[in-house]
Each structure stands twice: as structure tokens, then as C-alpha cells.
Amino acid sequence: MNLTHLDAINVVQKLAFSLDQATTSARDVSIHPPFTALRSVQTVLDADDIPIALGAQDVHWEAKGAYTGEISPTMLAKLNVRYVIVGHSERRELFGETDETVNKKVKAVVASGMTPIMCVGETVEEREAGSTEAKVLGQLRAGLAGVQADAVGSMVVAYEPIWAIGTGRTATPDDAQAVCSAIRAAVIADHGADPGASVRIQYGGSVKPDSIAEIMAMPDVDGALVGGASLDASEFARIVGYQAG
User: Fold this and answer.
1) Rounded CA gap, 43 and 121, in Å?
2) Cβ atoms of residues 137 and 186 within 8 Å
3) N or C: which end of the chain has fewer CB within 10 A?
4) Which pLDDT value is given to residue 245?
5) Contact present, 171 and 127 (Cβ < 8 Å)
6) Per-state percent for the chain, helix, strand, coil, to nearest 5
7) pLDDT tens digits for 157-214?
8) Is 88 labeled as catalytic in the residue annotation?
9) Catalytic residue chosen out of the listed positions 97, 122, 126, 160
């Protein structure tokens, strides 16, 4: 919940200026402004032909109805939104979203022709109790229940350890790899080898320019879900444009 639509336009324009064409052609980048800024950002991206995909931070699972204050998948799709974050830890922790709710949203996003970025992750208490894998894979399987294998293979799963969000603490590259590898193995076991190979698995949690290269060097980490650093166009551009070691 940051930036007015005017602020968002400014950040997007600075980001476009900071990214070179080689970087944006080699990597998929999406930005996820608040609902009030979606139309403004979409207009800028389209008018200036900026090669960045538009994403949303959340969605309701119904196409329309008496759900005052909610935003439907249809509304987002008509704005050329391509990616929708579902099950973010803040939605789960602060607003009581359940695995069942996340599953409904995943299915609704897929049915509307968009790509879900489904978030999973554990608390510090769960991590210290040694139940990281049980918690993460439980969320994964519940969120993907009833989703067709080809749709699973086309979506994004973001591992965001709750203890590393906004705290300045970051999972080590090996920590990220261990959980992302377990996620991929679970997708292979439940949905098949092809979806397991093609699903994109991201790491999110205090991702910074100075940590991105090591994280991205891990074999099962396909991308990053960037939080606070994305509000600074120059910082985000440095993350997107990291150089592999």
C-alpha cells in the first residue's frame, strides 16, 4: 500500500529509463501497483511501449457480484493485467486468507487468462520448530488443488519466508535453494515432470541489489518477488539488471 497513481507513473517512467533493452528482452519483469494506479500505469506502459508486464497485488475469485470493495479477475484482465499475486503472506497473516481462499483465487486467475503468482512461506516460529517444509508444501498443495497440470506449469510460485519480509533478514541462498527445490519436487510428484520443469519458482524476502546475484545462482530459483526495493526505481533496476557470476 504505497504510492498514489501519480507517484506510480513517476516510478515507472524512471524504471523504464534505467533499464536497457538487452536486460528487458532477456528477463521477464512485472510491476504490481495498487488498484488505484493500475489504469494509469497501464496507460504509460502501452503509450511508451515499455516492455514490462502489468500485475496486480490481489484479486477476488468471483467475476462479479455483491462484494463491495473487491476487484474481480475480469476487471483486471480488461486492463491487460498479466500477473496476479495471490496468497501473499500479508494477506494470509493480516487479513485471514486461508489456503482454500488462495486456491479459489488461483483458479479464477487461470480461468481469466492471467498468470497467478502464488505465495507460500513459513513464520519464524515454524522455521525454528523445523516445520518449514511441511508448512510450505502444505500451502503449495492446497493452493494448487484441482488446478490442471498445464496451468500449474505456466504459473509462478513465490517462496517468501515471512521472517525475512521487511525485516532486513534474508534467507541464505542455500536456504532459498533448499525450499525452492522441495517445491519443484512436490510439483513434479503431484503434477508431472513437465509442469515441474516449467513452473517458475521465485524467492521473495528483503531482496536487495547486493543479494540478488547469489540468490539467482541457485538452480531452482527462477526469479525474485521484490518488495520494498521495488519502490525505488534505481534499486529495482539494479536488481533486474544483476550480472550473473
Assistant:
1) 34
2) yes
3) N
4) 66
5) no
6) 50, 10, 40
7) 999 999 887 676 778 999 999 999 999 999 999 999 999 999 999 999 889 999 999 9
8) yes
9) 160
Residues of the chain with pLDDT below 50 are none
How far is 191 from 216, CA to CA, in rounded Å? 25
Of the listed 32, 60, 88, 191, which one is catalytic? 88
And the C-alpha cell for 242? 544483476
pLDDT at 244: 81
- Amino acid (one-letter) located at 142: A
CA distance 116 to 15: 23
CA 193 to each of CA 62, 142, 190, 230: distance values in angstroms, whole numbers, following the listed order:
31, 19, 9, 33
3-state secondary structure of 108: helix
**Domains defined along the chain, listed by start:** 5-240 (3.20.20.70)
Q: Which residue has the cell 531452482?
A: 220
23's CB contacts (< 8 A; 6+ apart) are 240, 241
All three cell numbers of 127, joined, read 522455521
- Grid cell, residue 42, equals 497501464
Q: Phi and psi (nearest 5°) for 29?
A: -125, 130
